[in-house]
Structures are given as structure tokens and as C-alpha cells.
Amino acid sequence: MQLNPDELIRIQNLKVVFPLDEGTVQALDGVNLSIKRGRVLGVVGESGCGKSITARSILRIIPDPGKIEEGEIWLRTKYGTADGSEQVINLAQIDPASDLMRQIRWGEISMVFQEPMTSFSAYHTLGDQISEALLMHRDVSRKEALRLTIEMLERVGIPNASTRVHQYPHEFSGGMRQRAMIAMALICNPSLLIADEPTTSLDVTIQAQMLDLMQNLRLDFGSSIMFITHNLGVIAQIADEVSIMYLGKVVEHGSVMDIFHDPKHPYTIDLLNAIPKITGQKKDRLVAIEGNIPSPFERVKGCPFHPRCSRIIQGICEAQVPPKVDFGNGHLASCHLYSD
Ligand code: SF4
């Protein structure tokens, strides 16, 4: 497989299922997306649309009993070759427990989770845990690993880093823990940083600081970022391109300008309308998207958004899967409104 020269990773027709006693959940239903080198892709959608499972599929850490049923995850990597040259490999075909996948995890692709308290061990100091990532993936001594850890904690804005490196996670505030999580994710200088709702549990001031920090670190390290969120306001600040997901599919993709100024898919338009505005009247009600995401065991026929869509074309949208329409400049949307 050939990736475009500016492409770092490309996901093609990825399908992930969870076979359960109650039935099979189709968590991803043919996801296609691509992340360019040094760029930020925002992945947006309501809870349950498949954003986090897409990220976990890339890292091959899908929780049991989930499994990749079909599709490819092509990554450009320097791991797995004898001379350290670049190759393109299909992560979907690699054993999740293999040495190669362990090297890629954290060495090439790292992840920042929504709640760092669940990612850090409560029994070890933050310094030990961050140094451990370096010791596993880089050829450095323990002393050098500690020095680089302190340097990285300083870069992410943790004051008194040489003292705090010896403290435990519970001694940090939520914002500081999230900074430490970012330090751990970046310590091996990964090609791709996956940030899964990294600012959701933070107040707006800390949230703004974290977004600035990630932007600066992206410029310093040249890493690509996959930024997962349900908050379109955050996406406007940080992303270059946006993929909108609904029920395990990417329903619209485009540049930030296209998505915010010329959205095509009714779901994207509804998400944008649901952003609270400060210009409205006090008595105006907040706009919400009608209906709910269907039960995970339900397979919706035709367009997955049709039960909630205000622009549904009766007789077509419930029966036929909408084609992907190309609006130029990489702006794509799957909707019958624009097809012949
Ligand atoms: Fe709405 Fe039909 Fe477009 Fe689906 S295909 S988003 S139901 S108009």
C-alpha cells in the first residue's frame, strides 16, 4: 500500500464488532479517515458514535470482546525494519501482543485519556511512570531518563518539576495531572498523539491552557494529533481538518473552514446549531438534536441518521445507504440530498 507523501496514517473501511450475549454491537461500520504528518485531525460526534473505538483500534487496545472484523489501518513507521528505514504496515493485521505492536504503542503512537487518574498507577511516582516509557522505547540510562522526564515536565508547564517528579498522582490537581499525562505521551517523541477528550473534565481556563500547550508542542515536535471530542468549539481552536462521526461511520469530512462555514450533512448542521450562543435572548431555549442515538444492538437501515433527520427524503433515506459526495478540496459528505 502506498500512502500519499504527506499522509502518516490511513484507515480504510474499518469495521469493529462486539459479539455479546444480547446480540452483536457494530461499533465501527466502515470508517475511513486519514491523518497528515504534522496536522491535527478533529474527530467529533456524540457519545457512542465510535470515536474512542477508532482510536483504540489504531493502538490495538480494543476492550474484550471487541474485534476488528474487516478493514485496514495503514501506518508509516520506522519500526519493524532492520535498518530503521520507513515502511507502511497494516496495524489491523498485527498481533496486538506482538513486540512490534508494543514498540509502536507509545514509541510511535501515544494517547492522552480523558481522566489521567485511570491511566496512572497510584502506587508509583509520576516520574517513575514517565521514565518507564523512555526506558522501554529509547536506549537511555535510568539517570538520563529521569533528567529527560524533568525536562519534559518543565516543558508542559509543571512548576518545580525536579521536586514534583518524585510525587504520586494523587498529589497533583486535575489540570496538572493532565499536563503530566501529555508529558508521558510526548516523552518518546511520537509521530501520532491521540488525545481522547483530553480537556472534557477541566474548567475552561485550564482547557484553554491545555489547547495552547498542545498546539505549541505540536509545532516543537512535529507530531500529528488525532483530537477526539464532542465539543466543536474546541475543534475550531485546534484542528486543521475535521471528521464528523455518527453510528460508527464518518458522515462528513472537511477542513475546519468547510465544516464551520459550509457544512453539508444535516447531522453536522444540527451539531453546529446546538452550540450555545451568547447573542441570543435570555428566554431562548438551547437547541438540541431531536431524538437519541439508537440502541447499540439495533442496525439502522439506509442512512444511519434518518430517524433523527429533519430533512429526510421519505422512501429513499430509510432504504438506501447514502453515497459519499465530493464537494472538492477534500470536503466529503454522505447524504442523499446531494446525490443525483
Ligand atoms: Fe438526512 Fe437523508 Fe441526508 Fe440521511 S441521507 S442525513 S436522512 S437527508
Report the mean per-residue pLDDT as an integer.
Answer: 90
Point out poorly predicted stretches: none
Please summarize the sheet with the most strands: 8 strands, mixed
Count the beta strands.
12
Using only CA atoms, what is the Rg?
Answer: 21 Å
CATH architecture tag of the largest domain: 3-Layer(aba) Sandwich
Report the bound ligands by name, code or SMILES: iron/sulfur cluster
Question: Mind telling me the CATH class of the largest domain?
Answer: Alpha Beta
Tally of separate domains: 2
General description of the model:
Strand 9 and strand 10 form a beta hairpin. The protein has helices at residues 51-59, 99-107, 126-137, 142-155, 161-164, 174-186, 204-221, 232-238, 256-261, 266-273, and strands spanning 7-20, 23-36, 40-44, 67-77, 87-90, 109-112, 192-196, 224-229, 241-246, 249-255, 324-326, 332-334. With 340 residues, the chain is α/β, with parallel strands linked by helices. Helix 3 (126-137) runs parallel beside helix 6 (174-186). The strands form 2 sheets. The protein has an 8-stranded mixed beta sheet, with helices on both faces. A 4-stranded antiparallel beta sheet has the order 2-1-4-5, with helices on one face. It has 2 domains: 7-108 and 190-338, 3-Layer(aba) Sandwich (Rossmann fold), CATH 3.40.50; 119-189, no CATH class. The chain is built from 10 helices and 12 strands. It is 29% helix and 24% strand. The structure holds iron/sulfur cluster.
